[in-house]
Amino acid sequence: MKAVPEMFINRKLAELNLKVVYWGPALSGKTTNLEYVHEHIAPQLRSELVSLKTREDRTLFFDFLQLETSLVKGLKPKFNLYTVPGQVVYAASRKLILEGADGVVFVADSQAERLQENVDNLAGLAASLTRMGLDLSDYPLVLQCNKQDLPNALSPEVLRERLGQDGVLCLGSVATEGTGVIELLAEIERHCQCLNETGELQRRQRARLKSELDLLLRETLVSRWRSQVSESRYETALESLVRREISPWRAAEILVDHSS
Ligand SMILES: Nc1nc2c(ncn2[C@@H]2O[C@H](COP(=O)(O)OP(=O)(O)OP(=O)(O)O)[C@@H](O)[C@H]2O)c(=O)[nH]1
Ligand SMILES: [Mg+2]
Hints:
The protein is α/β, with parallel strands linked by helices.
């Protein structure tokens, strides 16, 4: 499995677009992170905070905030920060938001009694990545151990160990007070700088462009081919398929052979 989420670089604007998704169990503090950033970053460096919430302030679909940071070797990094809804019923939204992410901040609720929810939620992230052909073990992940102010909070080191994430960058935080919120973004920016210096950023851009080109080629070929096959021939093959006289593979073969 290959875990290379692609960053989007728009050279003309010298912009580096990074999609970072805040993922974690319900009420762990994902939205609070974005609210803090929104309140404490100068308005000219950030967008408005877009939040789709229920009446009880629970994230319904996602929160979104765009942030401009300092220059990384002439590139202007733009962080596109998203949170997912933690509630179990919103699994479909979570998967959708994860698409195309460059990395995930896993916001754990450090309270000892929430440990199992963190474990289950991390397993959910791993499963979603697997469906996308990616592997959590080499996916860009940062662990934020939130609610460190509460008396029953596990320390970041213990929580990381319990979540089986040895070696993963791990920070304690109190999102309501902003502790560990901006620091975490600075870490991501540093990581991004390293990628740029080692040429990894450029390699990822190439891989992204290649897959875009392959996709376009496929679409172009299909539309050219479609224009060469008559509607009635297509319908006949489809009918045979519906009557289960032929397999889908055979139907495709017949249609392609007729067009060539
Ligand atoms: N004590 C404490 N409370 C926190 C902290 N961070 C967030 N909270 C509180 O936890 C509650 C949930 O925070 P949210 O940011 O809405 O949680 P969420 O992860 O976005 O929740 P969902 O969108 O439902 O998944 C709120 O009442 C916050 O004020 C923290 O570090 N310490
Ligand atoms: Mg939320």
